[in-house]
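Acyltransferase family protein, pasting as requested.
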Amino acid sequence: MTNSLRPHGYQRVPLPPARDENPADRAYRPDEADESPKSSSGTAGRDKPKQRNAFFDNAKYLAIVFVACGHAWEPLTDSSRAAEALYMVVYTFHMPAFIIISGYFSRSFDMRTDRLKRLVTGVLVPYVIFEIVYSFFKQYADDDPTHPISLLDPWYLTWFLVALFVWRLATPLFKIVRWPVPLALGIAVLASISPDIGDDLDLQRVLQFLPFFVVGLVMKPEHFEWVRQRWVKIAAVPVFAVATVFAYWAAPRMSSAWFYHRDSVQELAAPWWSGIVMTLALFGCSLVLTACFFAWVPKRTMWFTALGAGTLYGYLLHGFLAKGSRFWGWFDHDWPHTPLGAIAVTVVAAVVVTVLCTPPVQRMFRFVMEPKMNWAFKRDAAAQARDRAGTPPRKETARAH
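Structure tokens follow.
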């Protein structure tokens, strides 16, 4: 942008692009920004450690807690209308919140070699590993030896990694179109009324959740600041209250499968036109509740802030306990279905996923979640030229968020 107070032709030096990240992939570290101010010598602050953005780490941690609680509540929904109502409310916003943050930190993603490598090692490889391990777990824990091992049919939680891989690859396209959100919403609507898409790569979820990722792509830092205004925080209280009351009314009248976005309307035994109505209605409701959720997320550093860097670990690892509790009949007893039992189940779910996000767990499973795999990739020409010249690699800076 030309500065009118400067001589004609003066232009501000553009800020470097934001780093990539997603809420479930530490291979990209979006909120780790190099805030190294230049001194008169041009070198001061160059070695200053990178700072993470506490708001986004807090949001990711709280969202993963809601994910774990939602999975813990699922077996209770058949016997408790209140549990079903809370389940529907949480499912309206917890994955959209994750996906919006993921899209926000994918704004600078392109087909650059190093970013493609991180996409493979940080998303594709963990998908392959966990899909295989989950399949074996299903065979033995559920006594289901016929359960197939197929990388084309994601089981349980691994669909998110497939979706993240596809969304990231589509990012350059949505960055150049004029109306990215309406385009993504149109794709989601068409997917919801297309039963022939099938289950391959869980494409229904990939396409129906796509608008939230694109919303994140077009968001700017000031949008997150806007939802954290005092009046929004206050308004979020009655909004969540109304949503909970409405969900309590809707619980016996509406299938919670609508919130999974994994089926077409024909598979839900609904008329085709309801796919248009429900996709648009749920998109609007999810955006409102997600904004209310962001309004309540603390901006300052909290005791759980550091756990936001390990949400991928908590997300994928807690699935073994969530599914195992069904396979092993833990919810077949009466006590978990009592009010005190439901509270205890909620607390256990929150504690377990919190532990799974801690640094010791990250160190233990980093070889799976963030493998380096340098052996699998050719070295780029620039790195080879630097080695021959004996010059250190140029440090990439990123704008602080």
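Note for the archive: Residues 113-141 form the longest helix (29 residues).
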